Amino acid sequence: METLNGQNANVVIVIPAYNEASVISSVIESTINHGYSSIIVVDDGSTDQTSQMAVQSGAIVVTHRINRGKGAATKTGLEAARLLSSAIVVTMDADGQHHPQDIDALIAPLKLNLCDVTLGTRPKNTAAMPVTRILSNHIANFVTWTFFGLYVQDSQSGFRAYTNKALRLISTSADAYDYESEVIREIRRHRLIYKEVPIGVHYTDYSMSKPTRQDFSNGLKTLYKIIWKVISF
Q1: Per-residue pLDDT reduced to its tens digit, 16-35
Q2: How far is residue 83 from each of residues 14, 110, 197, measured CA to CA in Å?
Q3: CATH of the domain at 36
Q4: 80-134 tens-digit pLDDT
Q5: Other Cβ atoms closer than 10 A to 141
């Protein structure tokens, strides 16, 4: 595995986080152990020790004074990564559901200049995924396709990788979970080349219990926001 002194030196990992003090250290340490040491954690107004734990684990921490939403935190992290002159930026969730070993597969097509964006695609109908989560994902995929004109297998996955070119072109207004769908719109609008990459996922009681996760109610909110933005455009 290459380290920061090798080919991964220009790869930055962005992790938006909100009240993830109990798991953020393990996420960061696992990512570092897989050869990716340039990590930006965006603490989105946490009321726990997320920032302190992230700093102690070796991440760069950018802090929002208030909770602004996952989309806003992701955008802050992407901008910070651009300031570091990174060639490739990977976004991943802070709750431990994403596997750092999948980063290699996500960035490989970008390193080979085969595409501008890679989208991590979670396995369908996994036994560990609640029915409401499966349903909300299917609805989000359909709505994203209907209103933004591009069908992808997992429009709500936060495990993605971008080239600098893609980050310069992608412009979104969403601050919450509808951010993921707006990125799909931008891929189509700018005719960016994308590739869907299968990824693993690890659902735990912790990751599924947090109220801010993309559950069915949040899925409906995302649906409403997408439709409203389209008809208001």
Answers
A1: 999 999 999 999 999 999 99
A2: 13, 19, 27
A3: 3.90.550.10
A4: 999 988 999 999 999 999 999 999 999 999 999 999 999 999 887 666 666 767 7
A5: 18
Evaluate whether 5 touches 25 at the Cβ level (below 8 Å): no
Domains in the chain, number? 1
Domain span including residue 77: 7-232
Q: Is residue 2 part of a domain?
A: no
Distance CA 182, CA 15 (A): 18
Cα dihedral 10, 92, 182, 42 sign = negative
Which residues fall within 8 angstroms of residue 6, CB to CB, at 6 or more apart?
Answer: 35
Domain contains 146: yes
Residue 50 · residue 18 · CB < 8 Å: yes
> Locate tokens 């409203």: which residue?
228
DSSP letter string over 146-199?
Answer: HHHS---S-TT---EEEEHHHHHH------STTHHHHHHHHHHHTT--EEEEE-
**pTM attached to this predicted model:** 0.86
Q: Is residue 131 part of a domain?
A: yes
CA distance 126 to 128: 5
